[in-house]
Amino acid sequence: MNRTRTFKYAAIAFALAMLAHACAFADAVIVHVKLPDIERHYESHWRDAYAEKLAQTCKHVETEKKVRGGRADIVTETYAIEIDRAKKWHEAIGQAVHYANELKKKPQIALFNYNALNKAQRKALESVAKKRRITIVALTAE
After folding, report:
1. CA distances from 88 to 16, 19, 31, 93, 109 (A)
2. CA distance 44 to 36
């Protein structure tokens, strides 16, 4: 097995291990999660695909959980999760923090189209997430 293939398998194994612990990600970590090929234009499709993936390892997964002032996209036993386009990360952070506070959970943002962010935007996002102890999940379709 060549070195590139070994690295690729190690990266896949790491991603699977992180997903297996999706209900207890370390704070302010960026995790890349691949979802089955889905209709990529609508947030609801990303939400449903991510919720389905989380349901494989989490005991409790609820979508569209009503809270005072809005609805959390996904709620697990550990996290209040906001799904959004990467370009709207500012809004996602505010919503995730609010929902997490209302539900007594940790905040997580799951962003699709993550590659649309440039290096400066990613750095700003990561800085805020680290300070606020927010887990970032970069969603991609297979």
Report:
1. 26, 24, 18, 9, 11
2. 14
User: Around 50, how many Cα atoms within 13 Å sit in the side-chain half-sphere?
Assistant: 32
Domains parsed from the chain with CATH numbers: 3-141 (3.40.50)
List the Cα angle 124/126/131 in 5-degree steps: 100
pLDDT in tens, the chain (142 residues): 555 454 444 445 445 455 444 555 555 467 888 887 766 678 999 999 999 999 999 999 999 999 999 999 999 999 999 999 999 999 999 999 999 999 999 999 999 999 899 999 999 999 999 998 999 999 988 7
